[in-house]
Amino acid sequence: MANQLYSTTDWKKLHCEDIQAMKTRLGCLSNKSDSCSDFSEFLPPAQERSTRYLKLSTDEVTRWADSFDALLFNKYGLAAFRTFLKTEFSDENIEFWLACEDYKKIKSPAKMMSKANKIYKEFIDVHAPREVNIDHRTREETKQRLLEPTPNSLNEVQAKVYSLMEKDSYPRFISFPMCRGITGLSNNCLERAKRLKACVGGFLQRQDLSSLCKYRKPRLTLEECLMWKESFEKLLSSKHGLYAFRAFLVSEFSEENIAFYLACEDYKSTKSTSKMPSKAKRIYEEFIGGEAPREVNIDYETRDITQANLKSPTASCFDMAQYRIYILMEKDCYPRFLRSAAYRNLVNQLTLKSARQEAKSRKAIASRPPLEDEEPK
Questions:
Q1: What start and end residues bound the annotated signal peptide (predicted)?
Q2: Lowest mean pLDDT: which of 6-10, 59-63, 170-174, 312-316?
């Protein structure tokens, strides 16, 4: 749960397990130069699947980039995507979607009622241990439908979670270095494996926010850090919070979202109308255009409207696109940030620091000599 605080020992154990699991899955890349099509490092541990050694054709893996459905309805693609989401602390989305698929196959009304209650308690209820990110209206309407469950009772909430994965998690999966490397058809597999291993090595070391406690001034306090949980707006309005969130998105290979949002904020503050056209063009080419090097994930309608706005740029010409990206970050990236090991570690460090300072203050008060008009304790 996002609000749960871990002890330093617990966090270290969790963090080491996360890192070790990643290394186990990714370390194979540097040793499998004999097969460009081997994708088994993405799959669950051996004890959780058959002992058959899995091989994939490069064409099969490449087809995963055709559409989200092409990925989900390929058993190896689904296994790879599930593993990827675990590294992002968001596997509850795909697990919920799969649970809904199983639910729709149930014929017995009694079993349907039992399964519906189980899914609701695990994924939808506000106190669910693996709560998916849906709005209040959808949650309440789903709760009412499940009083008399039918095969379609979960369709609306399943569609929302599907859309969230399709628009955000799926593009990140396709652009993830391992996936890019495997679909890249490099002639030299060993060289590619080395490059991928270097990328992954950076990934394993990026989620360290401890510098916020030590080097940035004014120093971050526990109160400010905990305030980030209250809303996405409070996170972004905090200088330290924005720094931490950007570092987290870098570790997820999706920093283009916050970079675009901040570029839009900077654009709106432009005073000179003569500078607006060149600035707007630069933002469009970097983040929105079809060949944009840091393309953000927005729908065609929003892209077309934004492109049309650039013919006569005003301070509001990126508002629609910026709003789409803000909502995407608020609904998906922000909850993952709060659940991340990096944020939990930061809270733990600040909690320990605050406790030490409080103990030091109490000790200083207890050891000082009493004032002249003060009774000795």
A1: none
A2: 6-10
Q: List Cβ neighbours of 325 (8 Å cut-off, separation of 6 or more).
A: 257, 260, 261, 296, 298
Decide yes or no: CATH 3.30.360.10 for domain 211-345.
no
> 8-197 in CATH: which number?
1.10.167.10
> Is this model's pTM higher than 0.85 or not?
no
Give the mean pLDDT of 119-132.
91
pLDDT of res. 185: 38
Structure tokens at 54: 């899995």
Q: For the segment 158-211, what is each residue's pLDDT rounded down to a tens digit?
A: 999 999 999 988 988 887 655 554 444 333 444 443 443 344 344 334 445 555
- pLDDT, position 306: 95
The pair phi, psi for residue 201, each rounded to 5°, is -60, -40
